[in-house]
Amino acid sequence: MLIKHVASVNIIRDQDSDIHYITTPNARLIANQIANDFKKGARSFNIIGSYGTGKSAFLLAFEKSLLGRASYLDANFGIGSSYHFMNIVGEFRSLQEVLSEYLALPVENASSQEIFSEIFNRFYDLKKSANAPVLYLIIDEFGKFLEYAVRNEPENGLYFIQQLAEFINNPENNIILVTTTHQNFDAYVQQLNLYQKQEWTKIKGRFRELAFNEPVEQLLFLASEQLAGKPDTKLSKQSLDIFIKTRAFRHDGLAIQDIASKLYPLDITSAYVLTLAIQRYGQNERSLFSFLASSDHTGIDAHLQTLSTYFSLAHVYDYLIYNFYSFINSVSNPDLSAWKSIRGALELIEKRFETNIGDYAAIIKCIGLLNIFAENGALLNGDFLTKYASVCLGIRNSEKLIGDLEKKNIQIIAYRNYATRYVLAEGTDLDISSELLKASNKIDPVSDITGLLRKYYNLPPVIAKEVTYRTGTPRLFEYLITAYPQNIAPFGETDGYINLIFNDASTIEEIIAFSAGVEEPILYGFYQNAAKIKELLFEIEKTKKVLEENVDDKVAVRELNNIILHQQNLLNHRILNHLYNNEREVVWIYRGNQIGIPGKRAFNNILSEMCYEVYFRSPVLQNELINKHKLSGSIHTAKKIYLKALVNDWDKENMGFSSNKFPPEKTIYMALLLENDIRLHEDENTEIIVSERNNFHWLWEISMQFIEGARTSKRKISEFHDLLSKKPYKLKQGLIDFWVPTFLFIKRNDFALFSDGRYVPNLNADILELMLKDPGDYEIKAFDIAGVKLNLFNSYRKFLQQSVEDSPGNSSFIETIKPFLVFYKGLPEYSKNTKRLSNEALQIREVISRSKEPEQTFFEAFPVALGYSLNRLQEYPNELPVYINKLQDAIKELRTSYDELIGRVEVFIQTEIIGEALDFEDYKAALQARFKTLKKHLLLQVQRRLVQRIDSEIEDRKAWFNSLSQALIGCTLDEITDEQELSFYDRFKNAILELDSLTLLSNSNVSKDKEDLLSVEISSFDTNLSKRVIRLPKSKGAEVILMQDLLRKSFSKDASINLAALANLLKEMMSK
Question: pTM for the complete prediction?
Answer without folding.
Answer: 0.54
